[in-house]
Known about the structure:
- The complex is a heterodimer.
- Chain A is of the alpha/beta class.
- Chain A has one domain: LarA, N-terminal domain (Rossmann fold).
- Chain A has helices at about 5-15, 25-30, 50-65, 100-115, 130-135, 140-145, 175, 200, 220-230, 265-275, 285-295, and strands spanning about 40, 80-85, 120, 150, 155-160, 170-175, 180-185, 185-190, 195, 235-240, 255-265, 305-310.
- Chain A is globular and about 45 Å long.
- Chain B has a domain at about 455-535: 2-Layer Sandwich (Alpha-Beta Plaits).
- Chain B is built from 23 helices and 10 strands.
- In chain B, a hairpin with a 2-residue loop joins β1 (about 180) and β2.
- Classes of the chains: A alpha/beta, B mainly alpha.
- The interface of A and B includes residues 126, 139 and 215 of A.
Amino acid sequence: xxxxxxxxxxxxxxxxxxxxxxxxxxxxxxxxxxxxxxxxxxxxxxxxxxxxxxxxxxxxxxxxxxxxxxxxxxxxxxxxxxxxxxxxxxxxxxxxxxxxxxxxxxxxxxxxxxxxxxxxxxxxxxxxxxxxxxxxxxxxxxxxxxxxxxxxxxxxxxxxxxxxxxxxxxxxxxxxxxxxxxxxxxxxxxxxxxxxxxxxxxxxxxxxxxxxxxxxxxxxxxxxxxxxxxxxxxxxxxxxxxxxxxxxxxxxxxxxxxxxxxxxxxxxxxxxxxxxxxxxxxxxxxxxxxxxxxxxxxxxxxxxxxxxxxx
Amino acid sequence: xxxxxxxxxxxxxxxxxxxxxxxxxxxxxxxxxxxxxxxxxxxxxxxxxxxxxxxxxxxxxxxxxxxxxxxxxxxxxxxxxxxxxxxxxxxxxxxxxxxxxxxxxxxxxxxxxxxxxxxxxxxxxxxxxxxxxxxxxxxxxxxxxxxxxxxxxxxxxxxxxxxxxxxxxxxxxxxxxxxxxxxxxxxxxxxxxxxxxxxxxxxxxxxxxxxxxxxxxxxxxxxxxxxxxxxxxxxxxxxxxxxxxxxxxxxxxxxxxxxxxxxxxxxxxxxxxxxxxxxxxxxxxxxxxxxxxxxxxxxxxxxxxxxxxxxxxxxxxxxxxxxxxxxxxxxxxxxxxxxxxxxxxxxxxxxxxxxxxxxxxxxxxxxxxxxxxxxxxxxxxxxxxxxxxxxxxxxxxxxxxxxxxxxxxxxxxxxxxxxxxxxxxxxxxxxxxxxxxxxxxxxxxxxxxxxxxxxxxxxxxxxxxxxxxxxxxxxxxxxxxxxxxxxxxxxxxxxxxxxxxxxxxxxxxxxxxxxxxxxxxxxxxxxxxxxxxxxxxxxxxxxxxxxxxxxxxxxxxxxxx
Lengths: 311, 561
């Protein structure tokens, strides 16, 4: 278990595949196990001007995904890809409450280069959706990159069996399930209750219903989502991180540069590394511990021998 | 009998009416995010053209939004040319026109009731009462102003119901997914819905308080058209009355060719305004909408409109025209009675006194639920400016702004109040201040709005989960939008029902940072009575409705010495 728990775990799943109730993307996750599980790209300099940050974000994203073996490892010709950035708040990119739009756009371009038929980008924000999509810069960037990015259609939340520990059934956005591939693109930021919002917490954005009840047992609820969705790829935006007053932020003094983009197939490992970007230990964050206990991945991201790139 | 081919002035009028109705609806849809804190067009256009809204807000508050100066064009054009506005521009008039045309009543019946009656003077008395009240600082025009009436009814009743109806239909098709073989109906319906959803429908279904009353009044007024043609325009509309006063002496006049006319009186059967086209020298310019129906229904076209000044030939015409303003021939006069005017003026004064002496008059009592949009001016000035049009309710992206029922007393009926259980004031948004036609909600830039307080949050420790149920939650703190959060928390050990201890984060408020935006109340998971609630106290606009010493900002603990 200790040397490669994820692979072992997935093999176990594969053996019992037909009998087990798998998450919607598990088969693809299985196909993607060959190659590095975690890739970290870091920029040596910290450009100040917008164009520089934009170029940095694009290069870091390309490099991080290249470190895993390139997008073609995850996206095949004709795939329909769901891309889930964090568009949770009506904030500007430099406030670091939402995912960097250049990271999102780069992932979309790579998907199309790998042969994707259609890329859909959406989120169910906490603030009003239309301005959040616009102000975050993600809608414009995603549409420019050729993706379909529009606010969610509230008819399409469907009661779905999650078979989770605390969430047996919940409303999920149907279109996010009707795709071949699921790519999660969170941003690393502070969160009052669970200390950090990272990839696993970001999955709340495809859920409907009374999400504000998740917080009464946040570790278990979001890990139920992680166990259900099992994204094919997680790309964590750590170019700017929000270190206090999260997850909504708003104070530029709380934003710090980490100039890092992490890509991985192990969502627990990505989040564990993400925690360190915020000066936290993975063990501090309830849902990472819970996900690790449920063997969804490893907290000990170093054990995956992450590929590191310095640009 | 009556000729069926319709002449070009009537077609032109219909085209104009259709155009302005479509413009009204287009601007209504544009009153939303486009896409970041900007409206999609000049959404206040019809209110800017409305001299009644202009006049009442001006005499009540002694201030006027510069964009409303457009109303002077309407007024000036009406003085010179007549009340074309009602017949050719006003979308409310168009609506009543449609209802009137839709009813079926025999020409014989219309012959007896189509002409002028003295009841048409009631609108002038209503206008008089409203203006007297406005002069004393209370602006009740919004209850009767046609654009306020129509916009409010559209925003609160028609748009939400239409939105729901369309959405329900497409949702039903989407869920039932009917089809033959592999061909599915959704292949056709879903792209249509997608276009509607992105450009026409509301992003999320609006829900309003007080819809029933507004719907009832709207449909009652529509149905009154079945009793008399354009009932609202003839008997109630105070804007029509104002334009009627202005249109006493227009240069475009009805002309009867007495050589052709055989006094069949068919011209009066379709007269929309009750302007007596059928009586020789009896045409009432103040009641005429220039609909050209008289011209249309006349078998011999003996009635038509001409630029003409009675008793004037050649160069004396301009002087004669000016003279007519002071000594007009009898049919041109409004014929208002002094006693009735006194009664309407007294009613206006009475309304002001009633409001002054009510519980909420002059700040004797503050309703905790009277939470006004950010930028709203002080309550007295607000009631002098607000025309209750509902623009702010339509644009609010979170559906937070609702028509008040009793929150602001009777005088505040249908003025905007925020209901945090339904929406909240988004930190980065100033749409309502941009959409307010009379600046009852002042124009604000986002940075200034963020410094304003519309109320204050209070935790109900008997309900809030970490206090009352020993559970974690802190959703309020998560959503609190101020750069340094106004909600902070303390980690506390609390006993759970089974006797063990749990560590929970109990939320607290820093009232100096709280803007009263209400997102905490909105997102609180206790679905009925929330564990944190906003009340109006502390609102920036009202120096009396406060809690703390003015310098409480640095006041923690300093009172000990």
